[in-house]
Specification:
The complex is a heterodimer. By secondary structure, chain A is of the alpha/beta class. Chain A is about 65% helix and about 10% strand. In chain A, helix 8 (about 185-205) runs antiparallel to helix 13 (about 295-310). Chain B is α/β, with parallel strands linked by helices. Chain B contains 15 helices and five strands. In chain B, strand 1, helix 3 (about 65-75) and strand 2 (about 80-85) form a beta-alpha-beta unit. The longest helix of chain B has 29 residues, at about 225-250. Classes of the chains: A alpha/beta, B alpha/beta.
Chain lengths: ~375, ~375
């Protein structure tokens, strides 16, 4: 066998089998890889599936009524019996302010002393809603629910008192794909993308660096195996492990968290396999570049978790980001996978979403693997 | 006594020097430690927002009367919404939403003007893409408030003097409800955590894997001194990088820093203590670097997600809320937000300070104990 031929990288089934066997044995002997593939997704999905929710429910709200009366009672009454608010009656604004500063309530609803009187005068009376704006998102949701309660009360009040309000425009809302607006339905598919990014990188980020550090890479190079065989031998076992993790995650999403799976399951696993290639390829690239486990793990920590968490559209909308950051998100593989998962789970097989994202993943997989192949030469520096 | 103390001091300084060399002598490692945290704050600071802007919407006006055009003009004039197309047939709705070209469809039915003229309530249908339920809610709330304002103005013009009760809305601490104010202090906490984990989580594991830890144990260094020598570099680097990050948050992102720096740095020091403690504990439990790396991830990922940084802790089920109590980042995120946005005084943050000190003390003690007792 000549050197040029080896460099081209022929593949022999026998050598490949041997390499994969060696890799599998290594996996079995240090069970941390198996833990990464099978235990990690279970723990993370359990924690996050239950822990992560953006819905505002049972928000503690202070009701301050300066002069209680029939009208105020009917208004404050509409804040009860709703899952969004846990109202507490406080005597005055001063104690409400203290409660807000100490974080015991998230919002204050204030009915002034002239509420009952001014109700019948032109110009009407104001109801003050003050929210704690520190968590802007929750603050906005509280204001939205608060104004919904106000509108409903207004209509009821007008009806009861035979006040003729001129005909008004009424909002009829239709939420497609997620009619109850459960934030879990969109967060869990996104979480799968984040978790698979982690698993892919964790599995392969250290495997090549470890061989270099321990000197076994030199030993491998002295054998007739080609670089292609080494790369495939490294990828295949971890691909199997990663697919197992993916199966577990999808199963938990569907059966435990009741996320609807409206797209085809084969398509889902197809794009998952594609994404796994990208994630493993990225880990392998880090490992090959760093050649040292310490640096490889530092890089993997930095380039995988937070970018997949913050730049993938999993929780923060990409279209709201500034243009420059939107451009950067294109190099985050999780971005494409999140779009695919959210659509496949909630909306179904929408090809106009699937094609471009799947194509982007395929291109990234090719680029990563080509880079790994280019950088790993059978030579010692 | 003094002689032995100064000898101990010299030994610690030597060890700290060696640790810094191990961290910084490698060019790649040096870059990884200094470059990314700053780049990350800049990119993530811009990326992390729950605020929406330029929401694409389509108008489907089957009525065409004067009132319906007035309502449509309200949507066209709203700064949040961008009109991307005008629909003429029902069949056009689905593809626009499916492809995410439009997030909202405003559908005015053909009887709209007639109903209003007859004094009947006239519906306007809002169709939103629910794939991101949070954005969908914000879009719905905003669109409904446009319709409400439209109604109120019509009432005013009809001479009835407006509705008997109107809303006056205010947001304290963050008057414009910018989620960036809320998220950037949290991101500063995340990045500080990552930097400390980078420095500490592998430091003992690497020495164990390479066998140099045993050599360290047979030197005159006592376990406490080794612990200090391993902890100090993380503390110094963490302090330095957190300072850069806080400066960026204040001067670059214009986040108001209302509270005192003393309170902020007390929180930072205690947080670093606990993060370093956990990092060293993971590191001294691990036999190989791979295990240390895995341990760091297993701690960090839940620590970030359960910290309340993006999703409120109050929304979590009770059992999960208890788990967050052992998460140091949880306390630090509260400290950062309170000091930055509310200017909370020192004494009100003591409930956040002592758990950090406790986590730090316990984890550092375990790490020190493991130095001697976990042998291979």
């Amino acid at each position: 066998m000549n050197a040029a031929h080896q460099h081209q990288g022929g593949i022999s089934a026998m050598r490949l089998r041997g390499l994969m066997r060696k890799e599998f044995l290594q996996i079995l002997r240090d069970p941390s890889s198996i833990a990464i593939a099978f235990v990690l997704p279970v723990i993370l999905l359990l924690l996050f599936g239950y822990g992560v929710s953006l819905d505002a429910k049972h928000v503690p709200v202070a009701l301050v009524v300066d002069e209680p009366g029939a009208a105020t009672a009917s208004f404050t009454g509409s804040f009860r019996h709703l899952p969004y608010f846990d109202p507490v009656l406080l005597p005055d604004m001063h104690s409400a302010e203290i409660a807000m500063r100490e974080g015991r309530v998230q919002a204050i609803v204030h009915l002034r002393s002239d509420f009952g009187r001014k109700l019948y005068q032109p110009g009407g009376t104001p109801v003050q809603i003050i929210v704690n704006g520190v968590n802007a998102n929750t603050g906005r949701l509280i204001l939205g629910y608060g104004s919904g309660i106000w509108i409903n009360w207004l209509h009821q009040y007008a009806q009861l008192n035979h006040i003729h309000l001129p005909a008004s425009v009424q909002v009829e809302q239709r939420v497609w794909f997620n009619s109850e607006l459960r934030s879990r339905n969109y967060l869990v598919p996104g979480l799968i993308a984040v978790i698979m990014t982690l698993i892919g990188a964790l599995l392969t980020a250290l495997v090549v660096a470890r061989e270099w550090e321990r000197g076994t890479m030199e030993a491998l190079m002295a054998t007739p195996v080609t670089m292609n065989e080494i790369i495939i031998g490294k990828m295949a076992p971890y691909f199997v492990l990663g697919s197992g993790g993916m199966l577990i995650s999808v199963g938990m999403a569907v059966w435990l968290f009741n996320v609807p799976l409206r797209g085809s399951i084969w398509l889902l696993f197809g794009v998952a396999a594609l994404f796994l290639l990208v994630a493993l390829g990225m880990g392998l690239l880090i490992s090959t570049l760093a050649r040292n486990q310490f640096v490889a793990s530092q890089i993997a920590l930095i380039v995988t978790f937070l970018p997949a968490f913050l730049l993938s559209g999993f929780i923060f909308e990409i279209s709201s980001m500034p243009q420059v950051v939107q451009v950067i998100t294109h190099i985050i593989p999780a971005r494409y996978f999140v779009a695919l998962l959210q659509t496949l789970f909630m909306a179904g097989d929408i090809w106009s979403v699937i094609w471009p994202n799947a194509l982007a993943l395929a291109v990234m997989a090719l680029i990563f693997l080509a880079l790994v192949r280019r950088i790993s030469r059978k030579r010692l520096d | 006594m003094i002689a032995s103390l100064s000898a101990a001091w010299r030994r610690i300084v030597a060890l700290v020097g060696k640790e810094f060399l191990a961290l910084l002598k490698d060019k790649k490692s040096r870059f990884v430690l200094i470059g990314p945290p700053i780049i990350q704050l800049l990119v993530f600071g811009y990326a992390a927002t729950f605020d929406l802007n330029h929401v694409p919407y389509a108008l489907y006006n089957e009525d065409g009367g004067a009132v319906s055009r007035q309502l449509a003009a309200r949507f066209a004039g709203a700064p949040l919404f961008d009109l991307i197309s005008t629909i003429r047939r029902d069949a056009e709705i689905r593809p626009l939403i499916d492809d995410r070209q439009a997030r909202l469809i405003v559908h005015i039915s053909p009887q709209f003007s007639r109903d209003l003229a007859l004094g009947k309530p006239a519906p306007v249908q809002l169709i939103v893409d629910g794939r991101n339920s949070n954005s969908a809610l914000i879009v719905l709330n905003y669109a409904s408030s446009i319709v409400q304002q439209f109604n109120a103005d019509r009432l005013q013009r009809s001479g009835m003097g407006g509705p008997p009760v109107h809303l006056e809305v205010r947001a304290w601490f963050n008057p414009n409800l910018q989620s960036r104010w809320f998220l950037i202090p949290g991101i500063a906490g995340l990045i500080t955590l990552i930097v400390t984990m980078l420095v500490t989580a592998l430091s003992v594991a690497r020495e164990r894997e390479q066998g140099t830890f045993d050599q360290l144990l047979v030197t005159p260094l006592r376990p406490v001194e080794i612990l200090l020598g391993k902890a100090l570099p993380g503390f110094i680097i963490g302090m330095f990088e957190a300072t850069v990050i806080i400066a960026l948050a204040v001067f670059w992102f214009d986040i108001p820093l209302l509270g005192s720096l003393v309170t902020l740095y007390t929180g930072l020091a205690l947080f670093l203590l606990s993060a370093i403690g956990v990092g060293l504990m993971i590191s001294s439990l691990a036999v190989t670097q791979q295990q240390g790396f895995l341990g760091a991830f297993l701690f960090m990922v839940p620590a970030v997600i359960l910290s309340g940084f993006a999703t409120p802790i109050e929304n979590m089920p009770e059992a999960v809320q208890y788990i967050t109590l052992i998460d140091p980042l949880r306390y630090f995120v509260v400290i950062l937000r309170d000091v930055f946005l509310e200017g909370t005084p020192f004494h009100l943050l003591i409930p956040q300070f002592w758990p950090l000190a406790l986590i730090g003390t316990i984890s550092l003690s375990i790490a020190g104990w493991l130095f001697r007792h976990r042998m291979y």
